[in-house]
Amino acid sequence: MTSSTSLSLRFSPPPHTVLPSKPRRSLVVSAQTAPPAVETDRLEPRVELRDGFFILKEKFRKGINPQEKVKIESEPMKLFMENGIEELAKKSMEEIDSEKLTKDDIDVRLKWLGLFHRRKHQYGKFMMRLKLPNGVTTSAQTRYLASVIRKYGEDGCADVTTRQNWQIRGVVLPDVPEILKGLASVGLTSLQSGMDNVRNPVGNPIAGIDPDEIVDTRPYTNLLSHFITANSRGNPDFSNLPRKWNVCVVGSHDLYEHPHINDLAYMPANKDGRFGFNLLVGGFFSAKRCEEAIPLDAWVPADDVLPLCGAVLEAFRDLGTRGNRQKTRMMWLIDELGIEGFRAEVEKRMPSGKLERESSEDLVNKQWERRDYFGVHPQKQEGLSYIGLHCPVGRLQADDMDELARLADTYGSGELRLTVEQNIIIPNVETSKTQALLQEPFLKNRFSPEPSILMKGLVACTGSQFCGQAIIETKLRALKVTEEVERLVAVPKPVRMHWTGCPNTCGQVQVADIGFMGCLTRGENGKAVEGADVYVGGRIGSDSHVGEIYKKGVPVTDLAPLVAEILVKEFGAVPRVREENED
């Protein structure tokens, strides 16, 4: 079993990293430093190791949520680590639904294997979420995933997620054991990617090829993923968290990694001639609360990325509350203990028992203008380029994936990169071949290297087509409304528009320039219709902040003119009629 107390790795500092001439301030204002009064017994770990798995102690089980009861009743990781999935996959859905234990297996516990039953809209079908650290994948992996979804016909498709990851749809339970073997054969896993686990580690999508990168994030995100899953064998040390947990490693001035919405963000910083990371903690979105990450007032050398991650996870696992699911993300624990109290719990779980204070020498340039990765860009490797392609709202079919794999093999090195904006990058293309690649028919249609200015920043969650929690359809509607808006106004610069089908905000609407959160509202005749709460003013980058509600309960049929109005009022757009008259 992997433990944070025994892991330390040697990393060399990036060769191009230089100490800044004068100290820079932290990315965000420091949180409270005086911890609230906390009873000593509150710091007693709430879980204990029993038969190789962490389980909630009897004395802390009063008032726990239903998901915790499901975990206590049967250990979810046994479905993978003890091959429980093999027997479960042999049962019919009727047999499974006839018993509470197996019904909970398919509706809850299989999420530890990355399998999400679509009971409401696609009974008997599953979405499978993978682990794809840093969004780096290969043509072989992409072809394999295409082969899986192709057999499911119209139900089979794939999505690029807002965590640089693949999700595939249409999977049926009898196929799962073979799919898991197939994933392993191409170096993929879906393990520990759902429910109360660590989600896909995010990094710079152009890591290792970016001429302006601070540090190559790929080694760190790969190690984090292997550490958390024990090299895809399953790691019970971190599989019974109070709630889901997100991590990213920042390697770009552009902050492509969105550190402020992660539970733990590694921010590159030097200290006394050593390269390492300052730490932000607690960022999250939920239906009831959204918070930006705050400084832990801590710095770790690059060698201690894994021990620090383990220490934070152990503190959260041991001390986090397990009652109301809306109040079990890590920031609620930080609120309860105070940032210094939480920091002390992390520090005592470090192998050395010590945690250095934050460095003032952070390496992110606050004045940096975020770069557009669409189209052709030179890599740091002479003679090579990368090409950013638009993937409309992240949705792909099997043929699309096969074609991307072919292009990666023909023009690049057989590698593809996924981005948190649900787009795709082909790296390592010989510059002499870029024009030939740009002439490929595949790039002339949906997957354009030059998308329109509003399509560039369009993001959408799964929506009601597949997700039982979504209130409205999102993906097709996002495209349709954007097309309508483009006919109404001309926009001078990119505007990021995000859609989410419900208050769980998987589409991250609060950090969008304009965000749409699905709801039911009243139409002209007073009947309930699909609508959206509209947010405006979210920002990403060094001056990140959460957007505010602009208008609630707008029927979806009324969104295009409202968005056009917002674009003119807030973003310098010009009405098309006036633009044509001036011409």
From TrEMBL:
The chain positions of domain Nitrite/Sulfite reductase ferredoxin-like read 120-185, 377-440
**What name does this protein carry?**
Ferredoxin--nitrite reductase, chloroplastic
Q: Which organism is it from?
A: Brassica carinata
**Top-level class of the enzyme under EC nomenclature:** oxidoreductase
Listed A to Z, the keywords are: 4Fe-4S, Heme, Iron, Iron-sulfur, Metal-binding, Nitrate assimilation, Oxidoreductase
Task: Name what cofactor the protein needs.
Answer: siroheme; [4Fe-4S] cluster
Q: Where is this region: Disordered?
A: 1-27
> What's its catalytic activity?
6 oxidized [2Fe-2S]-[ferredoxin] + NH4(+) + 2 H2O = nitrite + 6 reduced [2Fe-2S]-[ferredoxin] + 8 H(+)
